[in-house]
């Protein structure tokens, strides 16, 4: 089985997350109440295992896909829509924070924001793929 540079890089990042998680846990770095899962080290170990599973499954079930101009066009339009949504969301959040202070911790806010960005890109890509 031939491995590309991207696959090797993904495996390396997974192992890095696992090693950092073990290192953080051994030196007690991070809060013990981090997102009700224990510590930052436990989260890094969890992310490392999940990414190892994803990379392995993608490697084993890899299909030959061709990317043509249509796919690049759809991805570029989805990126543009997602960027506009980020700017609008940031503006709305600033206005809402000015009216009433948002009392959400920073790591929770950023995790929701990143999930929203990924969801916005996925939805816009699928909609554009359906209509183009």
Descriptive overview:
The protein has two domains: 56 residues; 63 residues. Helices cover 76% and strands 0% of the residues. The chain contains four helices and no strands. The longest helix is centred in the middle third of the chain and has 31 residues.
Keywords:
132 residues; mainly alpha; flat
Strand content: under 5%
* Rg from alpha-carbon coordinates: 19 Å
Structural class: mainly alpha
Q: List the helices and strands in order.
A: HHHH
Query: What number of structural domains do the residues give?
Result: 2
Total strands: the figure is 0
Biggest pleated-sheet summary = none
**Low-confidence runs of at least 5 consecutive residues:** none
Mean pLDDT: 85
Task: Give a short synopsis of this structure.
Helix content is 76%, strand content 0%.
Q: What order do the helices and strands come in, and which of them pair?
A:
Elements: H1 5-26, H2 40-60, H3 69-99, H4 106-131
